[in-house]
Write a structure and sequence with these properties.
The protein is α/β, with parallel strands linked by helices. The radius of gyration is 23 Å and the shape is elongated. It folds into 2 domains: 121 residues, Immunoglobulins (Immunoglobulin-like, Sandwich), CATH 2.60.40; 291 residues, no CATH class. Strand 7 and strand 8 form a beta hairpin. The longest helix has 29 residues.
């Protein structure tokens, strides 16, 4: 029925290098951009953006007169500017800047006003002749760029996208990263392990050319990032920012299923990625962790809700049951948003979702209610599948070590379900029930 996670994982991390610490303002080294040395060639790449400075959340600040320059992150993580690409932001902080995209890769835009320096990095590959809209350059984009540079320096940006960094670095996280090398390194390691978890999951669980589906998913994530940056660049209020971010969270979930990954596998991959990220957040303040958990939990709630409804339909549940499960998903999303990232409240929201789905299935009539009661009781017993999984995974911060723990949990739930349903039950129905019970118990 399912394909277990193989012992052989995709090991996409490159050999780590020992590098000097990136010091902004001191690591800006001149680099020729083109033979002409101008900033107006029609063949160059064009970047349009706005410098917001330090007060982006108020949507009122701008950095009039800021000097904006193109740069690149080199292989050792330092940032090198391109010569003769400087432009000056107008009274609203807006700018247009062109540069030769053939000169390097891993492009960064730097803005300086004589007192402060801000940065933002460009999404994916950049080609000459392209027109790129970049999201506002501010303290948050600066923190994202610091993490990006650290990932490049450590050879860990393989199979990672800007959308992954975007999803994990909130405004609260940005404050911590900009103030502390330790926080920057923590977030870099966490994002790297999260991406590694995704690659490992695809390698072992996704059927039918997993490599191609992974690359398609990554490309969809890049496109989601492009749409977000366009939306944020035109936003004038915090409310418009929030709308854009919610659309981005939904697009991140769709990135998997649009790549022909099943809703079930999409949800399970996202859960594993999220857990590996949060497990790397030790010694980071509770407020910062809560801000990140708010976004990641909403993304997971959307993915899990979508997947459970697909599996319930595959199991032949009635229309009334489907409606009740849909309501459980709505309740979950509302509860996640109200929880403000507090771990206990997030856990309660997922527990309530599990209970609502279980109740809906017990009342469906497709099986005796006692079947679902027994399955749930065994999975959540003191030494049941869930307890053993949580104990084993709690302190694991490396995706490679987590893979076998997840596989044991999947197989344990599968055994519980198969032992409690009639042997004559259709195989596809059993598989749908197994998937459902895994999904509702992973985070509850």
């Amino acid at each position: 029925m399912r394909i277990p996670i193989r012992k052989k994982l995709i090991m996409f991390r490159l050999t780590k290098k020992i590098i000097p610490t990136l010091v902004l303002g001191l690591a800006l080294v001149g680099l020729n951009c083109s033979d002409s040395g101008t900033n107006s060639s029609s063949d160059d790449a064009m970047v349009t953006g706005k410098v917001e400075g330090n007060n982006s959340k108020q949507k009122i600040a701008n950095a009039e007169g800021a000097v904006v320059t193109a740069a690149t992150v080199t292989a050792n993580g330092t940032i090198s500017t391109f010569e003769q690409t400087e432009v000056v932001a107008d009274a609203s902080g807006n700018f247009e800047l062109s540069f030769d995209a053939d000169a390097a890769q891993n492009f960064v835009i730097i803005a300086e006003d004589g007192q402060s320096t801000w940065m933002a990095f460009l999404n994916a590959e950049v080609e000459n002749g392209s027109n790129i809209t970049i999201k506002p350059i501010n303290s948050e984009s600066t923190a994202e760029t610091k993490v990006f540079a650290e990932l490049i320096a450590n050879g860990e940006f393989v199979n990672t996208t800007k959308a992954d960094i975007e999803a994990m670095i909130t405004s609260e996280a940005a404050v911590a990263i900009n103030a502390s090398e330790t926080a920057k390194n923590k977030f870099s390691a966490a994002i790297s392990n999260s991406a590694e978890a995704r690659a490992a999951f695809f390698d072992g669980e996704v059927e039918g050319d997993a490599d191609a589906k992974l690359e398609a998913t990554l490309e969809n994530l890049r496109e989601a990032q492009v749409d977000l940056e366009v939306a944020l660049s035109s936003s004038t209020t915090v409310e418009e920012d929030n709308v854009a971010i919610k659309a981005f969270i939904n697009a991140r979930v769709d990135a998997y299923t649009d790549a022909n990954v099943s809703a079930n596998n999409a949800a399970r991959s996202i859960e594993m990625e999220t857990r590996m990220f949060l497990n790397n957040m030790s010694n980071i303040s509770t407020d910062v962790q809560n801000s990140v958990r708010t976004q990641t939990s909403l993304m997971l709630a959307i993915a899990t809700d979508n997947a459970v409804r697909v599996e319930a339909e595959a199991a032949g549940m009635s229309e009334a049951t489907m409606n009740n499960i849909e309501q459980a998903g709505t309740d979950l999303r509302v509860s996640i948003e109200a929880a403000l990232g507090v771990e206990s409240s997030i856990n309660t929201a997922f527990e309530n979702f599990r209970d609502e789905v279980n109740t809906a299935m017990q009342e469906d009539g497709s099986f005796e209610a006692s079947v679902f009661v027994n399955i749930d009781s065994e999975i959540n017993a003191e030494n049941g599948s869930k307890s053993l999984f949580e104990s084993a995974i709690e302190a694991i911060a490396n995706a490679n070590l987590a893979v076998d723990i997840y596989e044991d949990f999947y197989l344990s739930v599968e055994t519980v379900v198969e032992n409690n349903v009639d042997a004559s039950t259709d195989e596809n129905t059993i598989e749908a029930l197994v998937n459902t019970m895994i999904l509702i118990n992973l985070e509850s």
